[in-house]
Amino acid sequence: MLKGPRRLLLLRRAHVLRDYEIALGRNPIGPKHNYGDGRTPEGRYFIESRMEDSGFHRALRISYPNEQDREFALRAGLAPGEGVMIHGLPNGESWIGDSHRDLDWTNGCIGVTDDEMNEIWELVDDGTPIEIRP
Fold first, then answer.
1. In this structure, which topology does domain 7-132 adopt according to CATH?
2. pTM above threshold 0.90
3. What is the pLDDT of residue 13?
C-alpha cells in the first residue's frame, strides 16, 4: 500500500492483480505512533483476521502494532493503539461510493468502497503480508 498516492495494490509476486484508490486516517502524514492520532501505520504487517459483522461493511484486521510499533510506543510512553483495518464504508452509507476518496476520513484505517471490499475479501487470505509505505 502506498499512502502518498492513496493506492492499495494487490500483488502476486511482482505482478499487480488489482489497484484500488483508498482513503486513509484523518491525519495521514507520517506513521501511526499512538492511539487516537488519526494516522495510518507504516511498516510490515499481515492480515490477522476478518470481520464480516464490522460497522464498516466488512473488514480485514491488520496486525498493527508490530514489535517496532510497540517498542516505539513504550519508549515514548504512549499507547500504540490497535484495530487498524482495511474496511468498506460505514454500514448504511454505501451510497457514498467513490466520493469517499475525496477526503481522508478513517481513524487510521484504510477505506475502500463496499464493492471493492467484497473483492478484496475474496482475493486476500488471512496471513497475507501487507507493507504500508509513505
1. L,D-transpeptidase catalytic domain-like (2.40.440)
2. yes
3. 87
